[in-house]
Amino acid sequence: MKKVASLPEDNNEEKWQTNPETKEESKSCYWTQFRFATWKDTLMMVVGGLCALVHGAASPLMLLVYGMMTDTFVSSAGELTLSCCRQLAMLMVDIEAQMTMFAYYYVGIGLGVLIVSYFQIALWVSAAAKQIQRIRKTYFRKIMQMEIGWFDCNSVGELNTRISDDINKINNAIADQVSIFIERISTFIFGFMVGFIGGWKLTLVVIAVSPLIGLSFVWVKQELPSCWELQAYAKAGAVADEVLSSIRTVAAFGGEDKEAERYDKNLIEAQNWGVKKGTVIGVFQGFLWCIIFLCYALAFWYGSKLVIETNELSPGTLVFFGVLMAAMNLGQASPCLEAFASGRAAAKTIFDTIDREPEIDCFSEEGHRLDKVKGDIKFHNVTFNYPSRPEVKILNNLSMLIRAGETTAIVGPSGSGKSTAIQLLQRFYDPKDGMVTLDGHDIRSLNLQWLRSLIGIVEQEPVLFSTTIAENIRYGRPGVTMDDIIQATKEANAYNFIMELPQRFDTLVGEGGGQMSGGQKQRIAIARALIRKPRILLLDMATSALDNESEAVVQEALDNVDGRCARMGRTTITIAHRLSTIHNADVIVGFEHGQAVERGTHNELLEKKGVFFTLVTLQNQGNDLPNDKASQGRIHIEVNNHFQRATEFSGWDWTPVARILKYNKSEWPYMLIGSIGAAINGSVNPIYAILFSQILGTFSILDVDEQRVQINGICILFCAVAVTSFFSQFLQGYAFGKSGELLTRRLRKVGFQAMLRQEVAWFDDPRNSPGALTTRLASDASMVQGATGSQIGMIVNSLTNIGAALIIAFYFSWKLSLVVMCFLPLIGLSGAFQAKMLTGFANEDKKAMETAGQVSSEALANIRTIAGLAKESTFVDTYEQQLEAPYNSAKKKANIYGICFAFSQCVIFMTYAAAFRYGGYLVSSEGLHYLVVFRVISSIVISGTALGKASSFTPDYAKAKTAAAQLFILLDRVPKISLSQTDGEKWENFKGELEFINCKFTYPTRPDIQVLNGLLVSVKPGQTLAFVGSSGCGKSTSVQLLERFYDPDEGTVLIDGRPSHTVNVPFLRAQIGIVSQEPVLFDCSIAENIQYGDNTRNVSMEEIVDAAKKAFLHDFVMTLPDKYETQVGAQGSQLSRGQKQRIAIARAIVRNPKILLLDEATSALDTESEKTVQAALDEARRGRTCIVIAHRLSTIQNADIIAVMSQGAVIESGSHETLMDKRAAYYKLVTTGAPIS
């Protein structure tokens, strides 16, 4: 009952997993991110926040000092012009003493800033480190507590990313960013205050204009909602996803070029959006600078009026650009908001998991523990489907009894629910209906840890943890002695091989047990199960993955165990694929379609002629075949991975930016215009420095009219700069936007083409899943753009800025310039350094987290094994120990980062102190005009900050480099099977004679499972060959070798007497038409789907209709309102299966192939449609070589050759009559009518 109540909540869980909109709506409030803060942390954050407030006030304070100083200079200059020589000496002393005074002020403010900015950072970062530590522990503990069904719906990769990336995002949102945000807001407020105190009229005038700046921000947000970029790319992304998901169909029909074109067409929208974005940002920046310079013009014009005409202000108060500084700071606070937003979204997912109550709680203490366990297990009408696939019924009213002390074997075709039954017994899942009882108690009422402690399990692919053999066995039961371990290994036939190893029980088994062979892993796993002294022993296909020799050894161990179990009254449940292994089971239960359909001893079931009989018939005949599944596969996989890793990383360091630029070559006019714009933008700042000092200079002119003329002239110049700035910013934004987007589109296209060029085996690697590849196309290409277009703009901009500033400074006073220059590297570096610090620390954190990450990813990847052993808490403890190192490094980082930040913040104050002190000396002793002092200092300081900005605002260059490296690795990869039109031979009269000679084959992703094992069969032109056999015996694989999706590991496939690997691939595939069990249709019209059959030419409508008639499709199509233009929906979802099959047949007929491959083409159909489709197939087979894979024997009786397959080889072949006379496997299958899975 309880289960039913909690169902709806589970569905919601899935909903927010999949639906981004709902995720956005229910973002947590920002403060919830601090829910793990203790009172100490809160205190640290409050003190840090206060320090940030004080630090924010420093810049406006500096303006005050600056203003007082300007007054001193101006008045001294004014008096100088008046005075005669007598006063000169007095004033000199005066100005120098004054300047020394100001220098001290600056030093004082600088030291203050040094102290408060250190605390501001150190306190916030260390408080955040403590909270993050708590979040990590809580989150991991919670995940380990979740039921297995939850893991089915959340991929392990995603959880690992959440543990690392999402928690880092929260860290960013609650650490230094907060204090920097507070500091900038404080500068904003104090700036206004200083402005109002100094001169409220001027401040009000400037404020009146500032809403324009705000409005421009709003406009940009409206024009460029961030979701649009994704939507613009979504169409192209959908095409890429559809194509990569059905890559086999695309390859079989040679549609690679067609698809690349279709993808490219859909990229136009994304490109236009990107250009628009560049333009809008250009206009925005232009508008912003234009407004700022017009503001300056207005402020100086009105301010000088107040100074000269009404004497309300002194010249110094004009420097109350406090207001503008405030406005700028508000702008700079916005990146922090971004960090907060992504932190909030991340916190939502993390905290939702933390707050979720698991449906089956493994840490719970509730539930009974029985005093005495007999071991009777009963399934009462159990219905079940996996939470990840709710529409597929796995168990359907399953009822069966397993008696205590007996060995019960469960057999049945794959997918019939055998392993699922065992997982319900372990309570990995709860049944949807019905119940599972142990000694009459519903297992849901028992204590979970206790229940699992009764059960020992040995799986098909046993999981070992990367530690020693002894430790792995200890996982079975805590606190066992070494003698117990030795005893268990002896029982499991493992003792001898362990003693032969150099380190014996202390041998490390490697990641996932990679250093051990399959047989050795199995025996260690059996020892681990035995040491638990379980009341119930579950053997899930414990020997299926082994070669004959190891199988014999492991089987012997299991038989020993069986004998002992019977003596001890232990209940044993065995699931077997090899039926020879269960001869001596007490009871055998046959499963089919999630029900127990038969039950009895070995002999009873053979007489019943049901599921068990079919399985036995097929296997017995295949048993005399050679079988060598040596562990060569394992070595091969290790080497492969190492090799791949090596290649992945070697390419990363020297990413040729030059090579990216080559792809951008045709856009050189855009890049040139953009660079010109950038150069003009770069020179704006130094020009500002000249105009600014010029204005201050005018105040010492005594003739009022002359003064007014000069001031008006300067204000007009400011307006001119404003307008120029608008156009040049626009040019830079538009031109680089355009060239960058063209580059992105080109890179996406070549990337996509490179993917389609790869052989099919490459797509089997989980790293190249359609999802991963589409994401890479979406993000990598747009990241690479960051390394070219806008990057060049940034560089040109900074270079002209610094160049112009230095020229101006040295032209006016080289002595002062040299002094200020000494500080320039410090100012520039401090900006760059700060940016570096942040990214550097992020990488260090990642490194420190690696060991903890290994623990968590091992735990999550093997969660079933851990749950079966009830060892969740052990892993939680290990993980928490591993977190100490990153935590300590974070605390250390808080201090280092604090010191560096403090230094970078106070450098500028020290620069001013030194520069103005020396400037004062030059004014008094060398008679330098004070205007020059301002001009030199402001131009160099401004260029210094530009340096810092350029280094921190570069769109993430490092990211662009790694993305480019990944892209080029893909572009440079040479596929193992070339799709080029020129490689390999073609010939005129293709006959279609096929021969498989001793083909052996394993899939590259599962090298330890031999799929084909010496396949030997041939077919003459025009004949039909039918393959029969149980699932997994290699029927479909042989078809894939013929299509050259793969090449055999040994042996050859001959086509018209030529080895397949010498034949031109597009030529070969053009001769083959394929209709598979689940035909893949593309999301376009019926006509276009049929046309897809021949992508080398344009297929006419007549041919389409003709093919449709042959496929018995035409009449049905004519009943549809849109006839052949009817859209079939994604993957043909608008059509029934029979209709999809017939479209697929028509598609194959349009090719007019010499060879037709029918892979279970009618298996998924009901009887009615099967008849129609079968008739269409018989029509299509005429005059063609045909290979049929059948699962209903009735459909292939008229085939020329019938080949019965088992375990990757043909056990008998011939026509229907010949095989019936032989009275062997085929005869038995036909006469009993036993089902073939």
UniProtKB/TrEMBL annotation:
Biased composition (Basic and acidic residues): 13-22
All residue ranges annotated as the ABC transmembrane type-1 domain in the record: 46-342, 672-959
Domain ABC transporter as annotated: residue spans: 377-618, 994-1232
Source taxon at top rank: Eukaryota
Region annotated Disordered, chain positions: 1-22
Membrane topology field: Multi-pass membrane protein
CC per GO annotation: mitochondrial inner membrane; plasma membrane
This protein's UniProt keywords: ATP-binding, Cell membrane, Glycoprotein, Membrane, Nucleotide-binding, Repeat, Translocase, Transmembrane, Transmembrane helix, Transport
Localization (cell): Cell membrane
Record CDD domains: ABC_6TM_Pgp_ABCB1_D1_like, ABC_6TM_Pgp_ABCB1_D2_like, ABC_MTABC3_MDL1_MDL2
SMART domains for this protein: AAA
A molecular function (GO) term: ATP binding
Protein name: ATP-binding cassette, sub-family B (MDR/TAP), member 11a
Annotated source species: Esox lucius (Northern pike)
Lineage of the species this protein comes from: Eukaryota, Metazoa, Chordata, Craniata, Vertebrata
